[in-house]
Amino acid sequence: MSGRRGPWVILALLVVGAVAAGLIYVGNARNISAAEARGRNEIASNGNVQGRLYTGNPATEANLVEREDERLVYVRTIASAARWRVEGLEGPYRLRTGSAYTLILPARKAAYTTRDLLALAPRSFRAQAGGHYLLSESVVVLAGATLFLNAPAPNQGLKLRMESGPESFVSVVTLGGSLAIGGAKESTATVTSWDSAKGAPDTITADGRAYIRVIGGHASISHSHMSNLGFWSGNTGGLSLTGTDAISTFSEKPPTPAETAAASAGARLLPDKELTTLFKQSGQDYSLVTAGIENLRVDKNAFGLFVTNARDIAIRDTAITRSLVDGLVLHRYVTDASITRTTSSDNAVDGFSVGRSTTRVSLDAVDARGNGRNGMTFDGRPLADGPNAVGTPVDAYGSNRVTGSRAERNARYGVELSGGSNLTVADSVLVKNDVGVVVNNGATGVTIAGNEFRDQVRQAVAVRDADARANVTRNTIAGGDTGIYVRDAHADITGNTLTDISNHAVTLLGDVKDTAVEGNAIAGYGSTAIWKEESTAAELGENDLLGWAPAYTVERVVDSVFQPLTFIWLMLGALLLVTAAAKGRRSRHVFRSPYADRVPLTSLTRGIIALEDVRPPH
Q1: Residues 471-486, mean pLDDT to the nearest whole number
Q2: In contact, 181 and 221? CB cutoff 8 Å
Q3: Is 490 helix (H, G, I), strand (E, B) or coil?
Q4: What distance in Å separates the CA atoms of residue 196 and residue 134, rounded to the nearest whole number?
């Protein structure tokens, strides 16, 4: 490097390094990178269950769902009219529904069993080799009836195959009735779709697939294994508990005598007692569903287990795996549901999905692993945000809890709390998710306490946007890029222990008023322990930062270099270098010997001096 260009190259390198460090700093502070953007695109694609994730046929499957709805409406209508118009109608009967038949089981005190099906449908419910039974006719259980699918012989588990091929598929549906499927610990009941032409379970959903659905009534399932059932929608998703809107309770508060007298004036007032009886008779199919499920395994259904319009749902000791969409879905109007010791893993989208208008749901000791999107999703947002055609309320929902559970290696979030209020994630373990717990869409009254977070890819806890509010306390966070991330939201971050953080222990961004960061023990090796340069109104208390050792990154070097005093000394040094270089350029072509003015005496004489020449004169 020549003396002419050296100092300028040094200065240029310093400037370039500062700019690069600044870009790195901002990118890290906001946790945004090109790799993350690509990841988000992939996650968004994964959230859409069509295309490569769901390999069925949207057009044909949607039409089949509509046809199934029409069939069930037809069955309900004819069954209701038949009770009054068909003389001598007693016991089970059949209806022609399209190109096939549906076996109708009307009300009776004793439950219908597998033995009854063998007698009622000898051609469409047949015994096969290996103790299997093939059902090739759809069955509908009416209100007041119970179907108990059990093993015909003692100490033998039921092995039920439901016909499901390119031409047709069957279903078992209750319309206000009850369904029981039971095995024993030593003899599990198995239910699967079956393509007789292939001699194997049906794995193709494009032409529909056998399913089980409980509409109203009660479901009781124990020691069972269900696989390869369902297609396209939650109602036909495999195993579905789909109650309807609750029966009206107009008569709960009886009218006063004055109100009765006023109503009786003029037009005739029909007697309340007869009306109530008539209403119950005509509306008995329209009720919430209840269920008790234990020791159930579900594998490769479209939706593992789908529940909507339900109350008092108890699910325990259950495993749901490899669903084509979600694992366990509590879709709409589910109240007082208890999910205990249940695993939902390797599903295409979410492990556990709790939808809007669902309240008082408890997930305790559950395990969500390896799901394509979230381990657990809670959506508490209102069904409407203003006046609407059907008068849907604008209330938010919530009072849901996750305790003593685990979310591990899910592609996006371990737990997402999207809107709603009074939500809790406590005493749980979250490992190697993209983000551990996310609070967004204005969720309030959120408590994230006593959890263990290990090695999340981006953040352990993220509270962001729409004035979401959360109390993040007593958590242990180890590893990952950022510990706790708050953006345009509000959080109380107290009493947490953070270790091995590689970027920021706490990131505050945007309007974070009422956010307090206090009493946390922070250790790591990232650029800044608490990053708040682009936030407003945060309150920082005392935090233990003794364990924080900033890493020697380009960012850190540039930050230290551009301190005011350090910068002045660097500029002075650079000025000295420039001055020295300039002086060197002026003198490098006129170099002279230091003894140039002191020559030997011999150069001035011949070198011989006579003695008399130096003697003094006489």
Answers
A1: 97
A2: yes
A3: strand
A4: 9
Which is higher by pLDDT, 595 or 284? 595
Handedness of CA 567, 572, 577, 578 (dihedral sign): positive
Q: What whole-number distance in Å separates Cα of residue 447 and Cα of residue 473?
A: 8
Residue with tokens 């009622």: 120
- To 10 degrees, the CA torsion angle through 162, 163, 169, 173? -30
Over the stretch 370-411, which tens digit does the pLDDT of each residue have? 999 999 999 988 777 777 676 666 667 889 999 999 999 999
What is the distance between the alpha carbons of residues 172 and 147, in angstroms, rounded to a whole number? Answer: 10
Displacement of CA 376 from its chain's centroid (Å): 4
**Residue 517 burial (CB count, 10 A):** 26
- How far, in Å, CA of 102 to CA of 240, rounded? 19
* Per-residue tokens: 243: 């109650």
What are 381's two structure tokens?
Answer: 């947002």
Q: Does residue 334 contact residue 308 with C-beta atoms inside 8 Å?
A: yes
Please name the amino acid found at residue 215. Answer: I
Between 229 and 95, name the one with better pLDDT. Answer: 229
CB 484 within 8 A of CB 474: no
Say whether 528 sits in a helix, a strand or coil.
coil
List, for residues 181-212, the tens digit of each pLDDT value.
Answer: 987 888 899 999 999 999 999 999 999 999 99
Given a contact cutoff of 8 angstroms between Cβ atoms, the answer to whether 103 and 85 are in contact is no
What value does the mean pLDDT take over residues 590-617? 54
Which pair of structure tokens corresponds to residue 137? Answer: 């006719």
Q: Are 473 and 494 in contact (CB under 8 A)?
A: yes
**Any idea which residue has 């107290």 for tokens?**
494
The Cα-based distances of 257 to 5, 261, 273 in angstroms read 105, 6, 15
- Based on C-alpha coordinates, what's the Rg of the chain? 39
DSSP letter for each residue of 436-478: EEEEETT-EEEEEES-EEE--SSEEEEEESTT-EEEEES-EEE
CA gap 106, 89 in Å, rounded: 10
Q: Is the pLDDT of residue 545 over 90?
A: yes
Q: Within a 13 Å sphere around the CA of 405, how many CA atoms are in the beta-carbon half?
A: 30
Backbone dihedral angles phi then psi of residue 503, each to the nearest 5 degrees: -130, -85
Q: Which two tokens stand for residue 419?
A: 């809107």
CA 560 to chain centre: 41
List the structure tokens of 61.
């499957």
8 A C-beta contact, residue 586 and residue 580? no
Which pLDDT band holds residue 258 (cuts at 50, 70, 90)? low
pLDDT confidence bin for 6, thresholds 50/70/90:
low
151, exposed or middle or buried, with CB in 10 Å at 0-12, 13-18, 19+? buried
Q: Coil, helix or strand for 170?
A: coil
